[in-house]
């Protein structure tokens, strides 16, 4: 299980374990990373360029198999666009230290960094680790935010950056044992099958009916209005163009934990993503899946070049408003006495260098 096979995500990114045959490519990618983002690494370009070929071969060979060290390449269309690795801590054998994280600038904001982190975390879990940790350079706020979206938290530990005592690194940690907040793999959006869509409607329409009844609408009128709204928005069901109806799935077993429905709309030169529904099954609530789904939606929207994400929320849904505001959404407009629209601007979103580590 730890000798990872190739894996691909829905954006066409392939993650594969580095082999000894990849030595030259590893050297090329590593030097490019240190050259383009020198402030993100402990190693300097001079020290890396001075490494003999035997050192690169040893690194690739030691990372090619086993449970103590790993390197992963991210590829798009057979071109390597990212690198990440990890090794087992000598001080704590149950801790893996994430290293060498970097993504080509042209491939950023497309989920490559997250896919690399996911592969490292899965490898660490299979290698009997209960924690993945990393060090991020102080001031690299974009990388800090990216790691937080992957579930890492600040530990409070700091140390001077090796060879640069004027700079500080902060340790971050992700628990991957039984105490973690969300299962490995994060939340994946998997398009609903026709059967899943029918199950979704059977649960979603009554929820909308109840909301209309709470507003004072009669049961008959509310039922008719809810059905007409769904039929108007989704004339072709789950296959309606520009609408995405997905099951939220997590972990190696792709456990279904909820549903999401969103659509994409162009307004002049801007494109907006509208979230119509996000529902986490009761057994999986308070485990971070709603936040993870919103993070994934934001990643998808940014990768598609969308400028904003918006959602209509009931004024009575205080918890939902709090969740969204905590994720950076702001009130955009009052729709009526019952609902408000919240939105988040993605145009100024920082692009992390995906390279804050040694």
Essential attributes:
disordered C terminus, seven-stranded mixed sheet, eight-stranded mixed sheet, disordered N terminus, Aminopeptidase, elongated, 15 strands, 2 domains, 9 helices, alpha+beta, 358 residues, single chain
Structure description:
The protein is an alpha+beta fold and 358 residues long. The protein has two domains: 7-175, 3-Layer(aba) Sandwich (Aminopeptidase), CATH 3.40.630.30; 187-250 and 254-345, Aminopeptidase. It has nine helices and 15 strands. The protein has helices spanning 23-36, 45-49, 53-63, 112-126, 141-149, 194-214, 219-233, 289-303, 318-326; strands at 7-8, 13-17, 69-76, 79-88, 95-103, 131-137, 153-161, 164-175, 187-191, 243-250, 255-267, 270-280, 308-314, 330-334, 339-345. It has an eight-stranded mixed beta sheet with strand order 1-2-3-4-5-6-8-7, sandwiched between helices. Strands 9-10-11-12-13-15-14 form a seven-stranded mixed beta sheet, with helices on both faces. α1 crosses α3 (53-63) and α6 (194-214) crosses α7. The radius of gyration is 23 Å and the shape is elongated. Mean pLDDT is 85; it is low at 1-5 and 350-358.
């Amino acid at each position: 299980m730890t000798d990872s096979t190739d894996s691909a995500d829905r954006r066409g990114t392939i993650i594969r374990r580095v082999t000894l045959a990849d030595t030259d490519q590893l050297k090329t990618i590593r030097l490019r990373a240190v050259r383009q983002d020198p402030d993100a690494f402990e190693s300097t370009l001079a020290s890396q360029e001075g490494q003999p070929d035997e050192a690169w071969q040893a690194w690739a060979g030691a990372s090619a198999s086993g449970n103590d060290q790993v390197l992963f390449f991210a590829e798009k269309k057979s071109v390597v666009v990212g690198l990440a690795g990890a090794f087992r801590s000598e001080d704590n054998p149950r801790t893996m230290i994430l290293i060498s994280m970097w993504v080509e600038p042209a491939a950023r904001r497309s989920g490559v960094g997250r896919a690399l982190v996911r592969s490292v975390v899965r490898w660490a879990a299979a290698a009997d680790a209960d924690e993945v940790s990393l060090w991020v350079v102080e001031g690299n706020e974009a990388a800090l935010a990216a790691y937080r979206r992957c579930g890492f938290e600040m530990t409070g530990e700091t140390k001077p950056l090796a060879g640069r005592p004027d700079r500080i690194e902060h340790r971050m940690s992700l628990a991957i044992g039984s105490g973690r907040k969300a299962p490995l793999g994060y939340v994946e959006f998997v398009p609903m099958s026709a059967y899943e869509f029918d199950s979704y409607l059977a649960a979603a329409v009554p929820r909308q009916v109840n909301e209309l009844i709470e507003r004072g609408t009669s049961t008959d009128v509310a039922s008719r209005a809810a059905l007409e709204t769904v039929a108007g928005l989704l004339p072709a069901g789950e296959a309606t163009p520009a609408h995405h109806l997905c099951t939220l799935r997590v972990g190696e077993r792709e456990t279904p934990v909820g549903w999401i429905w969103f659509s994409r709309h162009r307004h002049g030169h801007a494109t907006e993503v509208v979230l119509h529904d996000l529902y986490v099954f009761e057994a999986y609530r308070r485990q971070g899946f709603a936040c993870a789904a919103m993070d994934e939606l934001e990643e998808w929207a940014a990768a598609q070049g969308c400028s904003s994400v918006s959602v209509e929320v009931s004024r009575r849904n205080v918890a939902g408003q709090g969740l969204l505001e905590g994720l950076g959404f702001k009130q955009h407009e009052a729709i009526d006495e019952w609902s408000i629209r919240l939105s988040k601007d993605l145009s100024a979103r920082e692009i992390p260098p995906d390279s804050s580590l040694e």
